[in-house]
Amino acid sequence: MDPPPSFEEKFGTRVCKLKKYLYGLKQSPRAWFERFTQVVKKQGYSQGQADHTMFYRHSQKGDDVDEIRCLKEHLALEFEIKDLGPLKYFLGIEVARSKKGLMVSQKKYVIDLLKEAGMSGCRPADTPIDPNVKFGNKEGRLVDKGQYQRLVGKLIYLSHIMPDIAFAVSLVSQFMHSPMEEHEEAVFRILRYLKSSSGKSLFFKKSEQRGTEAYTDADWAGSITDRRSTSGYCTFVLGNLVTWRSKKQSVVARSSAKAEFRSMAQGICEMMWLKKLWRT
After folding, report:
1. How many domains does the chain divide into?
2. Which end of the chain has the lower number of beta carbons within 10 A, N or C?
3. Residue 187 lies in a domain
4. Structural contact between residues 216 and 233, judged by C-beta atoms closer than 8 angstroms
5. pTM of the model
6. For residue 81, pLDDT beyond 90
7. E strands along 171-258, which residues?
């Protein structure tokens, strides 16, 4: 690396030797994960090829409580960690368990978001977006770009748990660079919908059902500005919804069939990834 000013005058041609990674550098997450990977692999775990952040080790006991305890103890020797017990709340995500399965919601996150936007007492909406809305007006009053980006960013995080707002959020996120009044109104419509659906949650049930399923769909030339279509898919594993996505296609489809085939291709890729993940 280049020495800092006046370094050579005092120390000559010597260089700095990095002893400790500093938090905040771009390389620090990668360096930390590399260290974590080495420690976990020494315990006999394998790194998933479908998802490199997943480490696994097969056991004949199913949920091996003793192995979990041993891993925690070993990690405590290598890193400064704290055992918070069974997962109940993490990064705005609430988790509740029962004999029938697992429920995941973001009710508190939604309430805090409505309070931040000043819409705690707003009138609820039945749907997250008007099904007939078309954003194509290039003329209009620009709105506060910073506030718009903050709200949409929080909605994007919410869409990771709430599939019902995925399409609406993907639509409003296309105008982050120059939001106008009509786009802001669409964001407020999503917030009004959240007012009526904050208590909803994803339920992962215990099921004897086996297999993986996927459903895909697409509109054709849904965007009136660039005539591109929007793809959407959702996948189910053991009868439970696990992944979903709604995104504008990268190229213009010349027919509705091509738009559907592109959407189907994305759904198949997701299925292949899930099956590869499942086989580990």
Report:
1. 3
2. N
3. yes
4. yes
5. 0.78
6. no
7. 202-205, 212-218, 230-237, 240-248
